[in-house]
Design a protein that fits this description.
binds manganese (II) ion, binds sodium ion, binds guanosine-5'-monophosphate, 9 strands, 250 residues, globular, 21% strand, alpha/beta, 8-stranded mixed beta barrel, 12 helices, Diguanylate cyclase
Length: 250
């Protein structure tokens, strides 16, 4: 498989990049964090979406070294930002299960000189599906370090609520399908209201993802989500563009 061979060399050839999508807090209208999203600049294919290589990377185990690069790079970048925003990194199930995750994070934070409180990891239900004892142990170790943990794509899986009971996440990221449903179906808005209320009761931040229009933002604010992320605020930005945005004082 050609893509597989190329991916094996992409790290050494420095073809991966991180883009950063800002998250806005609705209470004070300030940026509070950014999600790191990997991009592969392939020499012939151009920009390859993570949707097209992360699943393959998981399958062949390459997600572990790629994911380690993501964590190190995200910590380095965040340490250079002019304001102490948090940086969120997506951790896939295979990477989460690898025994090196906690050590990698400790070492990345220390090399970058980034306080653990500025790092957030985003996990999906896929992480929680298997080996619950070990998963919970890892989550608690991360929490003890001061790293925050978010539940990504909330509401799309089978038992989101039981995961919230099993582990006290810091943040719930409401899947963008509920946001896009909001304008044509009343259900979307009702679901967002319910998740925002759940977050409030449990003391968790609630981020609405995929916010694209002012009308969506108005409704999300009315329903009580604490933060938003989406094209309306900003697309994922290359590091230099993000620095310019932060320097401009957003
Ligand atoms: O930004 P974009 O729409 O291209 O991202 C597509 C998917 O790839 C998203 O589900 C996102 O969570 C995932 N993704 C992006 N960057 C990373 C990464 O560094 N690690 C992992 N595991 N997934 C990522
Ligand atoms: O799965 P996860 O939530 O980690 O991935 C976030 C994905 O959503 C990224 O691929 C990112 O590029 C994409 N994204 C971010 N904001 C928007 C938006 O406003 N609209 C749409 N359609 N996609 C978005
Ligand atoms: Mn995410
Ligand atoms: Na998500």
């Amino acid at each position: 498989r050609r893509l597989e061979l190329d991916m094996r060399q992409a790290l050494a050839r420095r073809e991966f990049q991180l883009h950063y999508q800002p998250q806005l807090n609705l209470a004070d209208e300030r940026l509070v964090g950014c999600e790191a999203l990997i991009r592969w600049r392939h020499p012939e294919r151009g920009l390859v979406s993570p949707l097209d290589f992360i699943p393959l990377a998981e399958e062949i185990g390459l997600i572990v070294p790629i994911g380690e690069w993501v964590i190190r790079q995200a910590c380095r970048d965040a340490a250079s930002w002019p304001r102490p925003l948090s940086v969120a990194v997506n951790v896939s199930p295979a990477q989460f299960k690898s025994d090196r995750l906690v050590e990698t994070i400790v070492s990345a934070l220390s090399h970058a000189g980034l306080p653990a409180s500025r790092l957030e990891i985003e996990i999906t239900e896929g992480v929680l599906l298997q080996d619950n004892e070990k998963t919970l142990h890892t989550l608690h170790r991360l929490r003890a370090l001061g790293v925050r943990v978010s539940m990504d794509d909330f509401g799309t899986g089978y038992s989101s609520l039981s995961y919230l009971r099993a582990f006290p996440f810091d943040k719930i990221k409401i899947d963008r399908s509920f946001v896009s449903d909001m304008e044509d179906k009343a259900d979307g808005e009702a679901i967002i209201r319910a998740i925002a209320g759940l977050g409030r009761s449990l003391g968790m931040t609630t981020v609405a993802e995929g916010v694209e229009t002012a009308e969506q933002l108005r409704r999300i604010r009315a329903e009580g989500c604490t933060d938003v992320q989406g094209y309306l605020i900003s697309k994922p930005l290359p590091p230099d563009d993000l620095l310019r945005l932060l320097a401009a004082g957003s």
